[in-house]
């Protein structure tokens, strides 16, 4: 496998438990998220990396229904869960997104992936620094970089998340950033709190969940 998208999804959440299973007109946020990831034509597969929490059975069920791969692993050692999920398929390139960004866009992924593949970067993201709205976060990196992070990371910050060991070591990894000319990073298209869910719900109910991300941004700005 050349390119694998892995999205992290868990049931537990301090601020909004079960958020990826919340529904808008009968469709879960996770289903919306996976549907939109499928707009990527340059990736080979999509995997949901979830936890070994009992409630994650439903997350796996949705992934299967949507024709996606799934993996269940450690709740707290997120780097291990992510690495083990990728390891079984040995992709050359891994794309990391998170399921609390339901309006993330496969077209954005392909735009970034094209630039990554023409570069010699080990890691390429649109978050260091961020200029796109919060909720469109995409990180692309070589599996070899992920493996080195898994082998060498030891600090809690490095194991409770996936990529800090990579982007905090520019002396080891070659890093690149995907930016736009205007900073829209304060605009939220992510779901951390109930208020966020209400915003996303209003956007989807008004124009559906099949629109390019800029349409939702324009609606918020209006």
List the helices and strands and how they pair.
Blueprint: E1 3-8, E2 23-24, E3 27-28, H1 29-37, E4 45-51, H2 56-65, E5 69-73, H3 78-87, E6 93-98, H4 106-117, E7 123-125, E8 139-142, H5 143-152, H6 156-159, H7 164-167, E9 175-177, H8 194-207, H9 213-221
Parallel strand pairs: 1-4, 1-6, 4-5, 7-9
Antiparallel strand pairs: 2-3, 6-8, 7-8
Helix pairs in contact: 3-5
Summarize the structure.
The protein has 9 helices and 9 strands.
Structural summary, described in words:
With 222 residues, the chain is an alpha/beta fold. It has one domain (3-221): Spore Coat Polysaccharide Biosynthesis Protein SpsA, Chain A, CATH 3.90.550. The protein has helices spanning 29-37, 56-65, 78-87, 106-117, 143-152, 156-159, 164-167, 194-207, 213-221, and strands at residues 3-8, 23-24, 27-28, 45-51, 69-73, 93-98, 123-125, 139-142, 175-177. It is globular and about 45 Å long. The model has no long low-confidence stretch (mean pLDDT 96).
């Amino acid at each position: 496998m050349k390119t694998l998208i892995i999205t992290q999804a868990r049931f537990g959440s301090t601020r909004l438990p079960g958020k990826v299973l919340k529904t808008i007109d009968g469709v879960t946020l996770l289903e919306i998220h996976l549907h939109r990831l499928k707009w990527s034509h340059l990736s080979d597969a999509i995997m949901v990396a979830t936890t070994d929490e009992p409630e994650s059975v439903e997350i796996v069920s949705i992934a299967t229904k949507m024709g996606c791969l799934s993996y269940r692993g450690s709740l707290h050692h997120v780097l291990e869960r992510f690495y083990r999920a990728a390891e079984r398929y040995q992709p050359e390139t891994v794309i990391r997104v998170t399921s609390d960004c339901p309006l993330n866009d496969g077209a954005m992924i392909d735009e970034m992936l094209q630039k990554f593949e023409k570069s010699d970067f080990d890691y390429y993201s649109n978050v260091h620094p961020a200029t796109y709205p919060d909720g469109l976060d995409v990180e692309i990196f070589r599996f070899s970089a992920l493996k080195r992070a898994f082998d060498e990371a030891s600090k809690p910050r490095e194991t409770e998340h996936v990529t800090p060991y990579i982007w905090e070591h520019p002396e080891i990894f070659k890093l690149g950033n995907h930016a736009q000319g205007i900073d829209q990073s304060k605009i939220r298209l992510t779901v951390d709190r109930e208020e966020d869910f209400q915003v996303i719900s209003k956007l989807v109910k008004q124009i559906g969940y099949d629109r390019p991300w800029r349409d939702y941004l324009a609606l918020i700005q209006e």
